[in-house]
Structures are given as structure tokens and as C-alpha cells.
Amino acid sequence: MTYRRMQDPSGIHPDGFTGALLAGESVLDGAVILHGPTGCRAHHSVMSEHTFPRDDVPERLNFLEPFYFGQPRIPTTYLDGDDFVFGAREKLVTAIREIVKRNPSLLTIVNSPGAALIGDNITQAVAESGVPIPCAVIEMPALSCSLAEGYQQGLVSALQALSLPPLTPEARTVALVGLSIAHQHWAGSVAELRRLLGLCGIEVLCAVGAGSSVEEYRRLLRAACYAVVHDEYADLVGPWLTEHYGGIVAASDAGAPLGFDATARWVEAVARAVDADPAPALEDIFAERRRVSRLLGQATGSSAVLKGMTFAIQADPSIAMPLARWLYEYIGMLPVAVETPDSRETPLTARLRAWLSDIGCAEAWQAPWHLTDPDLLFAGGQQVALAKATDRVGGIEVMLPARACLDIVPKATLGASGAAWLVEQVLRELWWVLWV
């Protein structure tokens, strides 16, 4: 069955419940317990393994103790019929004590939608378990809200549980906020942003929600500013941090540092916030841009060979804005669909919509990708898989890859190296154009 016979396949998206679970999983030395039936857990466990694998293969096959059921991530209390009638607090207490034996530094407990109806007192269960580590409790996850909202709900709960002590900010230090393990090649992107800021003499102390350990979270408040990567994943966490601990938030009006121009503007915004010189990083970005441009011409015979090819984007505005402009201005491709699911009206969406109108592509705004026949789709893994099933649409994943992929060589989607990776992927997906 092709996507054209489906009922709006572009409307399938993970929600805030998934976001809350992945937020807990984003802590390097953390663990998540799902208080609910196994049906709510299986695909989330696989998703966590795909996006943030931690243990080696022999260890991942050694999770046969209670509550894991052979899968290493997100153990569950496996609620059954009796539990829904009589409650399952005792089972949750047992699960907490069992999971803590693996020595996590932070435990996050998330109620499933069904378990939320029982009314088990999770906070009391944590107290009864007597565990000596911080425990974040999410009684009611952000059901039917966006993935980003649920993700930030999970992060705020974790920060509350850690109860970080105030620290004196240090000059030219930042904490990255607004990046998640749901973003494609997030680990490589963190490393690339660390590299670029390091060229400016700026140290990244913590990447909130993107693989940092509890020890790194405890250094968070030494940061001179919070550098926003993706607005949608920082618009709750950033204000929460400034309200409770002070500090400043630095963000770029161009969106995420995706593509060469947006990366340069992001570096300038962060460097300005901490009074650092962005020139070394900008020189690096421009050098990579020239290198990629030269290779692009060599690979295609002409840098104009891709001009006029069409693309569709289904992503958050912080991705859609810089990505659409980069594809149009750097490569010469034309937007036929730019969807921003679950996003409310923000200054960034207003600028994106105005820009599409300015280039004569106003009809692309919020157009469903599967109705526009693009040559190339940028979207989440599930949407890309649907597009590629037609054998007529190329696809590049920007969120939640559909399958696990072993990357021996680190990859990024953000920064200068991320822009180079995107060019490489565009050429691979549109290889047939090069041979016409």
C-alpha cells in the first residue's frame, strides 16, 4: 500500500508521553521506570535503544530479571487486570528497588495513561522504597501534546529532582538547551557545537536533554548563559532555569544552527552573549563551506545541476526555517511543502511563512508533503520510510530514525560538519539526477 492510499500519513507523530520517556532516557547514567502495562513500553524501549544505545551487545542481552522482560531500556511494572482494580503501589516499590540495583544516578518514573487512572501515589512509593538517589516523578505526562512539550516536562522534573545548588557563573561557559536524543545524529551535533564554541574560547559544561551525565548536570549552573539550539525544546526549560537560578538565554533568530549561514548566526549570538570573539569559528565555517562547494561542483559537474529540484519538509520550525533557506539559497532547490506539526504561532513561524511568500512559494506553507510530489523529503523516520516506499521520493531523516544504524564515523546534522553531511545525503538521495 502506498502513502497515496493512506488517510493522511503525514499526521502520525509521537506525543508528549513519548517525549517524557525519552527525556528521562537522555540522562547518560539515568534510568526510567514506566508504571504501566507492557503494551505502552515495548516500542519506547526499542526507540530508546535506537536513539541512545549505551551497553555493549552481551550486556544488552542480559536483562532477564523482573520488570525488564529481556529489553534493556525502560523497565515496566507490567500492570494487569488485578492491578487496575486494586492498585499497584507495592509492585512499583519492588520495581524501584530492583532497578536501583543497577546503580543509576537518577531515576525517572512515568505513569502510563492507563496507570494514571488508578491513582497510585508514586511519590509515596518512592518514599517507601527508601532509595538513596534522586527520583523524578511524572504523575500525568503531557498526553496529546507535542513531543517537545513532553520532553521538556521530563527535563523539568529531572531538574527538580536533582535540586541543583546555586553556583557562581564562570566567564565564557555555556549550557546547551533545546537538543534532544530524538534529533538525528544528536551526539555528533553536540560534539560539533562544542568544537565550534571551543574555537571561540567558550566551554560547554552541559547539554541538557542530550546525553549529559548527572555530574554534568551538577555543573549546569556554572554556565554564563543557556544557549538555545532548538526553540521548541527550550521554550519551557530555558525560562524555568532563569526563573529558579537566574542567568541569561542566548538564541538565534535564524533557528537551529543547521546549514552554514544559520550556524554562523548561531555562533555569533552565543559568542555575543558571553563576550567572546566568534571570528575563529566563523573562519572555520566559511572554510568548510568553500570546501563543500568545490566538492559539490566536482561531483555534479555543475553546482547548478540540482537547481529546480523540489523538496518538502515536515519538522519543527527551528529545523524547517534554516533548512528551507539553506536548500533554496545554497543548493537552489524549491520548496513545495513546509509543514510544522504541533507548532503554535511564534516569531520563527511568522518569519518562515513570510519568507515563503517572498520567494513566491506561499502555497507550500503547511501543505501535506504526500500531496505535493517532492523530489526529496526531510522529516521524521516514519515519514521518510513511507516516502521511500513509493520509489519516487528520496528522504532524509531529521528526527527519530526509523531503524538503528551503526555510525562508525561520527556524524552531525548541526554545525559546519552537519551542513557537509546534509549535502552528502542530498547527493545520495538524488543520485539519479547526476546521471541524466
Would you kindly provide a brief summary of this structure?
The chain has 436 residues and is an alpha/beta fold.
Describe the structure.
Helix content is 42%, strand content 13%. The N terminus is likely disordered. α12 packs parallel to α16. It starts with 15 loop residues before the first helix and ends with a helix. It has 17 helices and eleven strands. The strands form three sheets. The chain has a four-stranded parallel sheet with strand order 5-4-6-7, with helices on both faces. A four-stranded parallel sheet has the order 9-8-10-11, with helices on both faces. It has a three-stranded parallel sheet with strand order 1-2-3, with helices on both faces. The radius of gyration is 22 Å and the shape is globular. It is an alpha/beta fold and 436 residues long.
Q: How many domains comprise the coordinates?
A: 3
The run of helices and strands is HEHHHHEHEHEHEHEHEHHEHEHEHEHH
Strand order of the largest sheet: 5-4-6-7
Task: Specify the number of helices.
Answer: 17
The counted number of beta strands is: 11
- Terminal residue distance: 29 Å
- CATH fold descriptor of the largest domain: Rossmann fold
CATH homologous superfamily classification of the largest domain: Nitrogenase MoFe cofactor biosynthesis protein NifE, C-terminal
Largest sheet: 4 strands, parallel
Helix amount, in percent?
40-55%
Mean pLDDT: 90
